């Protein structure tokens, strides 16, 4: 009897960028199957000790500042927003042909905005004159800059040629109309090339998230991946057929973008999620210091509460952006929700769950997962790399994705139950908590579960984990009392529902 | 190392409408006017190619005035033909600001002027209508954020110790045109008083974020930002809230007191134009520590030792560092000049 030689193991390294450091995953590949071995924290750029090739780097990519030039038609607004959200770019200026500013003021605004890429979208031949004026303002404002912005022209074919001629002296390319899906994809692809640069080892985080959502959805249920990181927030919904709806918001986050999150949401909106009284100036100081300290660790409860509050607002504003682009509804009602990024890495799963439940305010039951150690993001990046090379990543990473996909809770939002309604969890009646408006509680249970509320149409199947089945009767949209005397006890009750003690920090 | 003597390239972004700027190779001095230009009103568009009866690409050939030139009403912008001449003239006094690809002219009235001043002693290494870069040698100290326009003046101490807060009562009109060193903190009251007393700029370990909002508006961010309007200039060296300066950073301020200096806001950097030999010893600044609640940034003082994975009050399990003020996460300790 002779022993058969073991198949060779190929060792890979995947570096998932945090803010200043990276989470380094060692990955073994046996016969085209990938297995995550262990993760460590390392400095960005630190060589991997035992890898045979350079690490696959999952990064946020460079910041792409996008300016948009468009006609006056209000219906085009959604298209523009969808394009920018799909690309992960930062919208720095949107100029419409009916903008009341003068030619010189438009040019000045474009110079101050310093766009890297300008999308000129013309949807109708009658709008071409207005768009040509905007392109002339772009030339006046930015043609002298070094490097000058690139211009992408899209839309009605005759007019795009006119715009291309008007942008003489600037690098111009024509892409498909972004009102069609292929146009959105083409612009996102172009923007990602720009953000990725020339480094062949880079996979953008948004690409990895989209691939991850596809892999999970391919198991049969639509999946939503929610990524709240230090410097960006993404929502990606994938369907079993492989189609993806995505919103990647570049300047919302709980870390290095904390100040932008506060700028967007307002200080009071962030403060309302903190379960104790804190004055605005003190909070703002902490926000600013966090924003300028990459990978800072919240050592005290007050700093952790700030990060949780920032995550709430980053998520709800990313969702609002998606709403303005007309894609919010499918991003809120997926049966599977996977949290990734910094909001998934809180020590307690309950903190992640609160961010997901309150930030998304999903009206439908969903099974909640979290990727606390970036394992799923690393697998998404591997899959993205395989797909980019023309392969099918399913055989390589599907098993490993399934291994790391562990549910933490089954979240069941309930609206207006009858007075005689009863809660049945896995066929057993739960009587400890009342089904009254405003209630928020969890029922201990692990594994597959069916939840039913008698007298209503609610009958949902999902999977629960360490947080059990979370029943949410707080209604949608979720509102918090404005006064501290009512707000703080309300928040403390919600925290307590998930077994989270609230320290009286300030 | 926090303070460093070396060569620096400082970029000055220019607004639209530059009319004079130095050529590459010219020498400039910090505080001097580097470039100037016109503030432009709403322009008038004048038919060019169509009125002249030429193709758009031929307009260049018949133009009499270069884009960027000041014109008076009636100035001939372009002219064709000899016996049956066709001409395009300026409809108003102002400046020819642009020529479109279709051969039309834009003439804008001049409503004011602007001036950009140099923030570095040195030589112009790049000059175009969008920016001018100056390369020179100086002592430089990087901060994390600066606000307001670039500032120039003589360096002066406003505090007696690196841990002191700059008190408004220490600021008066005798400090006009000086750059004041404010110790651990400068509050909004001190910033506004300094501006009222024509103090050129303020430098401190930290400024309260709320105070910065009061002075610069709700849109202010932790990254700072340059403005062209008349606002106070503030350079935060370490963070926000309270930031006692390390002695190694503060002592050179004492030595440099009385020397010319400039705050370049876009790069959040202080330049002091003192001889390279001004500091007799090298000052290696200690690491900085972000407090566990993110409320302040302070220098790491005394002995420190690793504690391994430690559980913090927030339930976070991270590598810890024992300092004289307790255990802090290693991630919250960074070299003074680490990129942030």
Q: How would you describe the overall organization of this protein?
A:
- The complex is a heterodimer of chains A (506) and B (340).
- Chain A is α/β, with parallel strands linked by helices and 506 residues long.
- In chain A, 36% of the residues lie in helices and 25% in strands.
- The longest helix of chain A is centred in the middle third of the chain and has 24 residues, at 301-324.
- The termini of chain A are far apart.
- With 340 residues, chain B is mostly beta strands.
- Helices cover 10% and strands 42% of the residues of chain B.
- Chain B is built from five helices and 29 strands.
- In chain B, strand 12 (122-127) and strand 13 (131-142) form a beta hairpin.
- The longest helix of chain B is centred in the C-terminal third of the chain and has 10 residues, at 247-256.
- Chain B starts with a strand and ends in a 6-residue tail after the last strand.
- Classes of the chains: A alpha/beta (506), B mainly beta (340).
- At the A-B interface, helix 2, helix 3, helix 7, helix 9 and helix 10 of A face helix 4 of B.
Give the overall shape of chain A.
Answer: globular
The general outline of chain B is: elongated
Radius of gyration of chain A: 24 Å
Number of helices of chain B: 5
Query: Helix segment count of chain A?
Result: 15
Structural class of chain A: alpha/beta
Distance between the termini of chain A: 71 Å
Side by side, the strands of the main sheet of chain A go 13-12-11-14-15-16-22-19
- The overall pLDDT of chain A, averaged over residues, is 92
* Count of individual beta strands of chain A: 22
């Amino acid at each position: 009897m002779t022993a058969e030689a073991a198949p060779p193991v190929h060792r890979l390294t995947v570096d998932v960028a945090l803010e200043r450091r990276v989470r380094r995953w060692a990955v073994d590949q046996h016969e085209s199957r990938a297995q995550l071995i262990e993760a460590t924290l390392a400095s960005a750029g630190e060589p991997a000790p035992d890898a045979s090739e350079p690490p696959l780097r999952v990064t946020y990519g460079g910041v792409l500042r996008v300016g948009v030039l468009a006609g006056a038609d209000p219906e085009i607004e959604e298209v523009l927003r969808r394009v920018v959200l799909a690309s992960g770019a930062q919208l720095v200026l949107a100029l419409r042909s009916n903008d009341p500013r003068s030619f010189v003021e438009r040019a000045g605004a474009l110079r101050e905005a310093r766009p890297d890429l300008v999308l000129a979208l013309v949807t109708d031949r009658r709008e071409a004159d207005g768009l040509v004026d905007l392109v002339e303002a772009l030339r006046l404002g930015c043609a002298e800059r070094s490097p000058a912005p690139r211009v992408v022209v899209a839309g009605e074919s005759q007019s795009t040629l006119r715009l291309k001629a008007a942008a003489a002296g600037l690098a111009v390319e024509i892409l498909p109309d972004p009102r069609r899906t292929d146009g959105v994809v083409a612009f996102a692809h172009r923007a990602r090339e720009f953000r990725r640069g020339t480094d062949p080892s880079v996979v953008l985080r948004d690409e990895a998230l989209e691939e991850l959502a596809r892999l999970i959805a391919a198991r049969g249920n639509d999946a939503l991946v929610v990524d709240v990181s230090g410097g960006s927030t993404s929502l990606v919904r994938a369907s079993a057929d492989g189609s993806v709806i995505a919103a990647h918001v570049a300047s919302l986050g709980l870390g290095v973008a904390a100040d932008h999150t506060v700028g967007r949401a307002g200080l009071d909106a962030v403060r309302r999620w903190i379960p104790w009284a804190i004055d605005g100036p003190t909070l703002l100081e902490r926000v600013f210091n966090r924003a300028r300290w990459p990978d800072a660790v919240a050592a005290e409860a007050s700093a952790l509460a700030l990060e949780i509050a920032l995550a709430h607002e980053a998520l709800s504003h990313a969702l609002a952006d998606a709403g303005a682009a007309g894609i919010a509804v499918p991003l809120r009602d997926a049966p599977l929700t996977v949290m990734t990024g910094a909001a998934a890495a809180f020590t307690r799963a309950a903190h992640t769950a609160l961010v997901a439940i309150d930030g998304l305010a999903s009206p439908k039951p969903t099974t909640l997962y979290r990727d606390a150690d970036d394992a799923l993001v690393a697998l998404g990046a591997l899959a993205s790399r395989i797909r980019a090379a023309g392969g099918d990543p399913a055989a390589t990473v599907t098993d490993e994705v399934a291994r790391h996909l562990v549910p933490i809770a089954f979240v069941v939002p309930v609206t207006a139950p009858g007075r005689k309604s009863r809660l049945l969890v896995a066929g057993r009646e739960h009587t400890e908590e009342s089904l009254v408006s405003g209630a928020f509680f969890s029922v201990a249970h692990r594994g597959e579960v069916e939840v039913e509320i008698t007298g209503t149409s609610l009958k949902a199947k999902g999977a629960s984990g360490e947080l059990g089945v979370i029943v949410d009767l707080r209604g949608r949209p979720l509102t918090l009392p404005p006064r501290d005397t009512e707000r703080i006890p309300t928040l403390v009750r919600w925290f307590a529902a998930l077994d989270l003690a609230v320290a009286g920090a300030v | 190392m926090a303070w460093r003597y070396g060569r620096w390239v400082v970029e000055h972004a220019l607004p639209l409408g530059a009319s004079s700027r130095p050529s590459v190779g010219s020498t400039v001095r910090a505080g001097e006017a580097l470039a100037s230009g016109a503030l432009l009103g709403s322009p008038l568009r004048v038919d060019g190619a169509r009125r002249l009866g030429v193709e758009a690409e031929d307009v260049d050939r018949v133009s009499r005035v270069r884009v960027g030139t000041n014109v008076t009403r009636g100035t001939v912008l372009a002219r064709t033909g000899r016996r049956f001449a066709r001409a395009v003239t300026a409809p108003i006094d102002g400046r020819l600001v642009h020529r479109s690809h279709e051969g039309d002219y834009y003439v804008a009235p001049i409503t004011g002027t602007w001036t950009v001043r140099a923030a570095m002693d040195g030589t112009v290494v790049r000059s175009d209508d969008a920016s001018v870069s100056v390369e020179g040698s100086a002592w430089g100290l990087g901060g994390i954020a600066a606000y307001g326009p670039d500032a120039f003046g003589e360096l002066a101490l406003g505090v007696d110790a690196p841990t002191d807060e700059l008190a408004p009562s220490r600021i008066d009109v005798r400090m006009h045109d000086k750059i004041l060193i404010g110790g651990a903190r400068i509050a909004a009251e001190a910033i506004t008083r300094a501006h009222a007393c024509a103090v050129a700029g303020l430098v401190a370990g930290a400024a309260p974020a709320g105070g910065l909002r009061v002075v610069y508006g709700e849109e202010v961010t932790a990254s700072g930002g340059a403005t062209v309007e008349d606002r106070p200039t503030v350079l935060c060296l370490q963070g926000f809230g309270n930031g006692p300066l390390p002695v190694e950073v503060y002592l050179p301020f004492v030595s440099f007191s009385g020397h010319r200096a400039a705050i370049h806001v876009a790069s959040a950097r202080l330049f002091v134009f003192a001889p390279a030999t001004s500091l007799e010893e090298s000052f290696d600044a200690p690491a900085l520590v972000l407090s566990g609640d993110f409320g302040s940034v302070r220098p790491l003082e005394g002995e420190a030792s690793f504690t391994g994975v430690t559980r913090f009050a927030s339930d976070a399990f991270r590598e810890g560092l024992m300092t004289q003020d307790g255990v802090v996460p290693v991630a919250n300790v960074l070299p003074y000049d680490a990129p942030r």
